[in-house]
Amino acid sequence: MTAEAPGRRRQPRLFDALPGLAGRVPWMPLVEGPTPVERCEAIAPWLGRDDVWIKRDDRCSRVYGGNKVRRYEFVLADALERGAKTVVTAGGLASTQVMATALLGARVGLGVQAVLFDQPVTQFARRAMLADVTAGAELIHGGGYGPTALRTARARLTTPSSYLILPGAAEPLANLGYLDAMLELDEQVRAGQCPRPEAIVLPTGSSGTLAALALGAAWLGWSTEIVGVRITTSLACNRLTIGLIAAETRRFVRRLAPGFRPGPGRFRLLHGVIGPGYGHPTPEALEALPWVERLLRVPGEITYTAKALVGLRQLVHEPRYRGRPVLFWSTLSGVEPPIAEGARARLPREFLRYFEGPTVA
Ligand SMILES: *Cc1c(COP(=O)(O)O)cnc(C)c1O
User: Fold this and answer.
1) Mutual angle of helices 172-190 and 208-220, in 10-degree steps
2) Does residue 93 share a domain with residue 190?
3) N or C: the chain end with fewer CB closer than 10 Å?
4) What is the pLDDT of residue 6?
5) CATH number of residue 236's parent domain
6) Which of 96, 233, 310, 312 to mutate to test the pocket of ligand 1 (most atoms within 8 A of CB)?
7) Among residues 183, 167, 181, which one has the least CA distance to residue 210?
8) What are the tens digits of pLDDT across the range 224-266?
9) Which atom of ligand 1 is nearest to the CA of 168?
10) Claim to verify: residue 196 and residue 60 sit in the same structural domain
11) Are residues 87 and 150 in the same domain?
12) 135-176 per-position pLDDT tens digit
């Protein structure tokens, strides 16, 4: 395949592999070159193994890294193609999706409105809200899940030329980003940059990433098990929802590329890490937090990454993975977004309470 200088791609590998998609699926370059694969040396003593690998999607963009960028190459291109002027989305107070939307949306000329639901307040959450308004996003107070859903629908309906991105952005179009990512990893494996992993571990919420990686592994003919550390309620994140997302994504691709016929792939959820719920600290996650910071060199967060490392540490000691290559798929941004002086004054009044008193982490 084509050699790739770090920088903007001409088109995703997926369009080379499935030419039926090229020109018929919206896409714009946001990911800057293949993300490195490395050994997790910085956390080897804590993991108790020095042969665990990391796929550094934290470094996929200098604007904002992490899990949503590969999705947004397709989703934001779709928004622009449909003539949208504003993107409406929703997430928790500490939402990395909302930060990604605010920063990447601004970069491509889209306004952003985000409805935020309550979650335990951390330092990370406080900085996230300030970074969101610094990037120019309009934040709307959501509170509980019900009012958040209503206010998100209202923002979509009352904002002209708006485009809705649901929490997780797990729709088939967005999931193409992670089919493409598996082609990228396959190239890196074939170039000898890392062994073919027997397991890939990542935090899992709306499950689009897990479903697409599993589908991608099956497509490549890998027997790799994709292991999601569940970080949200099992009502939304379970084998059935993941199977449905994978089936929908496969159907979406097959409509344009009839030869695409992979099975659903091998996947599993680790249910025992989440604790009391989405964003709630657990003793294990609090203990893992400094190791997130050593590994990624950014302030850590609990909701996704600290819990993912807790799950990773469990998995690498399962007898079946002893001495076998395991890869951690990094999903947090390695870029800390800027916070303007006086950003707090730009928050709507209902948000000021989140800046009072101590945080849970
Ligand atoms: C969105 C996200 C994920 C993956 O979530 P899915 O919704 O399951 O695809 C993981 N980590 C971070 C930091 C995220 O923002």
Assistant:
1) 50
2) no
3) N
4) 54
5) 3.40.50.1100
6) 96
7) 181
8) 999 999 999 999 999 999 999 999 999 999 999 999 999 989 9
9) 7
10) yes
11) yes
12) 999 999 999 999 999 999 999 999 999 999 999 999 999 999
Q: Give the pLDDT band (50/70/90) at residue 7.
A: low
Tell me: pLDDT of 346 over 50.
yes
CB atoms closer than 10 angstroms to residue 243: 15
Band of pLDDT at residue 308, cut at 50, 70 and 90: very high
Count of the separate structural domains present in the chain:
2
Residue type, 237: C
**What separation in Å is there between the alpha carbon of 231 and the centre of ligand 1?**
9
Q: Round to the nearest angstrom and report the end-to-end CA distance of the chain.
A: 45
Q: Using one digit for the tens of pLDDT, what is the confidence trace for 114-123?
A: 999 999 999 9
Amino acid at 349: R
**Which one of 213, 273, 304, 309 would you pick to mutate in the ligand 1 pocket, going by the greatest count of ligand atoms within 8 A of its CB?**
304
pLDDT score of 19 more than 90: yes
Owning domain of residue 122: 68-168
Same domain, yes or no, for 226 and 131?
no
Q: Whose alpha carbon is nearest atom 15 of ligand 1? A: 96
3-class SS at 111? strand
Would you mind telling me the total number of residues written for the chain in this entry? 361
**Cα–Cα distance between 190 and 194 in angstroms, integer?**
8
Q: CB within 6 Å of ligand 1 — which residues?
A: 66-68, 96-97, 168, 170, 203-210, 304, 331-332
132 and 217 belong to one structural domain: no
